[in-house]
Amino acid sequence: MSKLSVLNDARVETVLARLHTEASKQLGALILHYLPKLPGLFLGKGIQWDQTKTEFYNDKYIPIEPNQGEFLYLIARAINAKTIVEFGTSFGISTIYLATAVRDNDGGIVIGTEIVHEKVVQARKNVAEAGLQTYVDIREGDALETLKTFNQTVDFVLIDGWTHLALDVLKILDPLIRPGGIVISDNVNTFKDSLKTYVEFLQNPANGYRSSTLNLKGGTEFSIKVKEAS
Ligand SMILES: C[S@@+](CC[C@H](N)C(=O)[O-])C[C@H]1O[C@@H](n2cnc3c(N)ncnc32)[C@H](O)[C@@H]1O
To answer: In angstroms, what is the span from residue 123 Cα to ligand 1's centroid?
Structure first.
């Protein structure tokens, strides 16, 4: 991986470089997996998400890309985010970018969520290797359950778990997100059909957000909470 001068932290950057390299080794398996579904992507419909076949991903990183990670870091710094919630931690790559921002904002917490036990174990190790364990609480299990009792004000949300659950997770967090808070969501073009109602919710001003799809990776939805929903 190229330099990560935005983070400006050799220890964190070394861990991220290793994790991004390991993730890139899985690219071939992912391309083969998606091969039958690629025509949909080229026709602008996106890849059909199959919620019944998720075991394939149990050992896959499928992380955000470095430029998205730097973007997350910068936005979290810009709004002085102290409390960040992440749907879909996997091996902890996005968690590490976000926790670096929280640390550099003079402290706070990233609440991670991950349903695959082995990923939780590895993510905790990776976060510790980066020296960020003080800033991270990874909740193991279904985020729809593990976030149910969460009741702190939230500054920043990353939605990067299974797409068919994205809107349900957002609706759990929505009352907690402060005005000026940010929601960022990965892959809204790649999984266009599955995320359609989710994006429509965020792009409807009546729901209290202003939202636009950025041309980062497979479409990154960038949303700002402007007020309570009407
Ligand atoms: C795309 S990956 C996340 C990648 C991660 N954000 C990164 O950048 O490294 C999606 C993750 O969400 C997890 N996941 C899916 N459904 C979940 C649920 N209901 N609760 C918690 N985690 C879930 C999957 O196991 C998978 O590891």
So the answer is: 11
